[in-house]
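haha ok so turns out i had the wrong file open the whole time. this is the CORRECT one, sorry everyone. sequence first:
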Amino acid sequence: MSKNWTRYMLAVAACTALAGPASAQSVAQFYAGKTMELIVGYPPGGSNDVYGRAVARHLGRHIPGSPNIIFRNLPGAGSILAANHIYNVAPKDGTVLGLLAATNTIDEKLGAVGVKFETTKFTWIGRVASAVNITAMWHTSKIKNIADALKTESTLGATGSGSTVYVYPNVLNRVVGTKFKMVMGYGGSSEAMLAMERGEVEGHSTSLEAYKSAHPSWLTEKKVNVIVQYALKRHPDLPDVPTCVELARTPEEAQILKAVVNATEIGKAILTTPGIPADRRDALRKAFMEMTVDPEFIAELDKMRVELTPMSGVELEKLVTEVGNISPAVLDSIKAVYGKT
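then structure:
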């Protein structure tokens, strides 16, 4: 054997020895000393912001290597801007997390403007809570219940056509004939609720958690009248308020409304980019579920008066797939009423 060959084999052995530990890098080794990012596709002040900040504060200590997690709001187009960023721009290594609109799955199926992602290809980490939206009217409004909203025009503060605060009441207008008039351009639910209090608009549609967190006394002191909830079944706190599905007059209308509000089960979900290594995906999912039973995390959500109804990443992934499996006939019906594409 020549000396050159011997030197070559020694060099290969040395390289292999160096490469071995790197290729076998553990999850803890990868995340140790890292700074992760959690992006919420909404402005500050709403329920998505509340949940996102809480997760950013608590998740890191459950991830092997205990990385730091910084929080960022990236609003725009009902979180489509943030979804596109996470899907196409963020590094696909499990260091960027997101909390996006629960309706992104249906947005994609409908071909909504600006969508550059496939929801089933995101890596789904876990759901913090489901997301029941409501339409609430200020107590001085003539609209006291959903029957009034079917007869009399009323104004709702809204952000943009890409948000559920617009989508849900707009769908109700087109399907069952409510007469909500959207007043657009508010920066988020906090601004829209302030506008309602000032008398600029009569009501606002957003998540129940947003009302509980920002203005809990409005519900208990009847400052607002909740007239409809966008969900498949009535929330325990709103036993006398009809769901939008209950307003359907035909089986077809019920099918459309069910398909649209199915997204409430996806709720406040944490995801990351497509294509991260399986061991990091599993570690993030395990860390997420550990966080949901962490007394400090639970105490923070209790303090903010928001719910905790967790779902594992595996279950969430299945749910996202199911929500996206809309029949062509129903999809065509939704396109006619959605008003977001």
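Residues 292 and 298 are 7 Å apart (CA to CA).
again sry for the mixup
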